[in-house]
């Protein structure tokens, strides 16, 4: 292997136990540096992008030695799952199919791997930060790698092109009708550049965000004596209530204060708060 074709990524792999999270969970000393997606806008030149399905799983980074989440949490995968992964940094989605996030979360974040459950997980590779070059070149590397290892659980995310925003909208409508989460756009000729930038763009009919539970509002009417709404705080400090999307069980036993939740919304109000926010799920620490 010609090491001149690879970036000299240096990743600390010493781990520590973090009392603020689940007991026994290990984290890297520093989080992996990865690209974070921006939201789609119609000013993008789509001829410069590849398009792929947005997978509803857990994003994972293979450091070359360990499988971790984007927060640096070590994933306790079975040896057979990781032994054929390359010696350089690659990233992808741990995925079990559309609308199977809870199955992925319950499997991947277990401290003791369940071999039978892991048989249902695929590592869908979508980038190779450790490979020098543009995304187009990194994608070719991933395709060759997946063909060479020929492992059922290691797959390359399929990329395609679209010629217009209407074609993109039509594609989005087709796959979301079949329970897909959305689309991702990858800038073809961009080198890997960590941080939030337009080299990675997400396209969704409905947006989702994460927020911290900081309080409750008591229910009224049929919800008397139960939780009526959660008071949520965003990363910028903005606070608002989420009062829909809950089951009766969740209203009786609501997420605890300090819990991160994912909620869905349809754009923004004039005050800059999520419009029509509704509860989606508890987001376990990754």
From TrEMBL:
Cofactor: a divalent metal cation
Coiled-coil boundaries: none
Gene Ontology molecular function, alphabetical: ATP binding; DNA ligase (ATP) activity
Domain ATP-dependent DNA ligase family profile per the UniProt entry, residue ranges: 134-236
Chemical reaction(s) catalysed: ATP + (deoxyribonucleotide)n-3'-hydroxyl + 5'-phospho-(deoxyribonucleotide)m = (deoxyribonucleotide)n+m + AMP + diphosphate
Gene Ontology BP term (one): DNA replication
InterPro entries named among the record's database cross-references: DNA_ligase_ATP-dep_cent (IPR012310), DNA_ligase_OB (IPR029319), NA-bd_OB-fold (IPR012340), NAD_dep_DNA_ligaseB (IPR050326)
Keywords associated with the record: DNA damage, DNA repair, DNA replication, Ligase
SUPFAM superfamilies, per the entry: DNA ligase/mRNA capping enzyme, catalytic domain, Nucleic acid-binding proteins
Protein name: DNA ligase
């Amino acid at each position: 292997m010609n090491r001149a074709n690879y970036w000299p990524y240096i990743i600390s792999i010493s781990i520590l136990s973090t009392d603020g999270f689940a007991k026994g969970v290990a984290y890297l000393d520093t989080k992996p540096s990865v690209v974070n997606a921006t939201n789609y806008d119609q000013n993008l030149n789509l001829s410069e992008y590849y398009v792929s399905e947005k997978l509803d799983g857990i994003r994972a980074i293979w450091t070359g030695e360990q499988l971790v989440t984007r927060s640096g949490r070590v994933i306790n995968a079975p040896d057979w799952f990781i032994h054929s992964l390359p010696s350089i940094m690659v990233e992808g989605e741990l995925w079990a199919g559309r609308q199977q996030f809870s199955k992925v979360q319950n499997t991947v974040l277990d401290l003791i791997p369940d071999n039978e459950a892991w048989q249902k997980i695929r590592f869908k590779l979508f980038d190779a930060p450790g490979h020098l070059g543009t995304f187009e070149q990194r994608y070719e590397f991933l395709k060759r790698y997946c063909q060479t290892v020929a492992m059922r659980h290691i797959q390359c995310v399929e990329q395609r092109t679209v010629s217009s925003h209407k074609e993109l909208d039509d594609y989005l409508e087709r796959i979301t009708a079949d329970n897909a989460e959305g689309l991702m756009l990858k800038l073809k000729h961009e080198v890997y550049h960590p941080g939030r930038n337009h080299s990675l763009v997400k396209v969704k009919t409905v947006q989702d965000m994460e927020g911290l539970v900081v309080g409750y509002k008591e229910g009224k009417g049929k919800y008397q004596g139960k939780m009526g709404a959660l008071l949520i705080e965003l990363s910028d400090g903005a606070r608002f209530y989420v009062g829909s999307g809950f089951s009766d069980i969740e209203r009786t036993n609501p997420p605890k204060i300090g819990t991160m939740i994912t909620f869905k919304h349809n754009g923004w109000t004039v005050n800059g708060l999520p419009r029509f926010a509704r509860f989606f799920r508890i987001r376990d620490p990754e």
